[in-house]
Structure formats: C-alpha cells, structure tokens
Amino acid sequence: MATNRTFTMIKPDATGAGHTGAILDKIIKAGFSIKAMKYTRLSAERAGQFYAVHKERPFYSDLVDYMSGGTIVAAILEKNNAVEDFRTLIGATNPEEAAEGTIRKLFATSIAANAVHGSDSDENAQIEGSFFFSDLEKF
Ligand code: ATP
Ligand code: MG
Questions:
Q1: Residue nearest to ligand 1 atom 2, measured at CA
Q2: How sure is the predictor about 34, in pLDDT bands with cuts at 50, 70 and 90?
Q3: pTM over 0.90
Q4: Secondary structure letter of residue 110 according to DSSP
Q5: With a 6 A CB cut-off, is 15 part of the ligand 1 pocket?
Q6: pLDDT of residue 1
Q7: What does the domain layout of the chain look like in residue ranges?
Q8: CATH (one of 3.50.50.60, 3.30.70.141, 3.30.559.10, 3.30.70.890) for 5-138
Q9: Are 51 and 66 in contact (CB under 8 A)?
C-alpha cells in the first residue's frame, strides 16, 4: 500500500449506536476516498491478533471482548498524508481529550469504546489493510 493510504475500523460501539453513516460522511467530507470497505465481525482470536501489540496491557482482554462483540466496518482510505491527517480527524484516544469536531469527540463514549481506529504509521496501515483485504493490488 502506498503512503497515501490508511486503514480504519468503525468500532462496535459506533456501529451499534447507529453512527456508521455519520462517521463515513465525515471521513468523505474530510477528503478521504474509500478504496475498499466491508461490514464484518472479528472473532476474539482475530481481535487479539489485530491488537497483539497491546497484549501485556491491563485493558487487553476487555479490548478483545469489546472488538469482537459486534459489527465493525473495516476500510482502506486514500488521501495525501493519509495516516497523519486521519489521526487528526479522529482525535485523541480518550474522547475527553479529543479536539472539538473530531470523530471521537462527537461519537466516542469512553477511552475503551472510542468509535474508530486509525493506523499509526504507513507500515501499520499496510499490515492492517492486508489483515482484512487479501486482494489489495487490485484497487
Ligand atoms: P486505535 O489503535 O484503536 O486507533 P489509538 O491508537 O488511539 O487507538 P492505542 O494506544 O493504540 O490507541 O489503543 C488501542 C485501543 O485500546 C484504543 O483505541 C482503546 O479502544 C483501547 N485502549 C487504549 N488505552 C486504553 C485504556 N487506558 N483503557 C481502556 N482501553 C484502552
Ligand atoms: Mg493504535
């Protein structure tokens, strides 16, 4: 994946609360184009793999339960400077610290249930996109 791409998930709290359309609207209006997208669910095993970097953290098992507890929307997004600009659009991990107008400020309910994921580097955008989409070279 090129450096103008990032990977996102709309998390189960946000899909369950009916915010999927509003969040996609904000993403598109911010200038990202959706290159691939799917509604899906993560098993506990797959959620654990996705967030394996956090496996020693005290919140890991709650995070796995939460991410495997409902529908997610996984998507690959394209824009210049995609990784950094998307992290700005979603705001801080803790919605109480997120800037006004960011997706987490608007839609997240807690540091755990924080509405969206955004890749934190070009390398992880590539790895995470490949975790959900096996045919990346086609689009
Ligand atoms: P993400 O990787 O989902 O985009 P992030 O990069 O902002 O989030 P990370 O530090 O990677 O934050 O944490 C991954 C996820 O783990 C968070 O989005 C949140 O759902 C959960 N998490 C992080 N810190 C805590 C915490 N202190 N308590 C509970 N859950 C947490
Ligand atoms: Mg992260």
A1: 117
A2: very high
A3: yes
A4: S
A5: no
A6: 45
A7: 5-138
A8: 3.30.70.141
A9: no
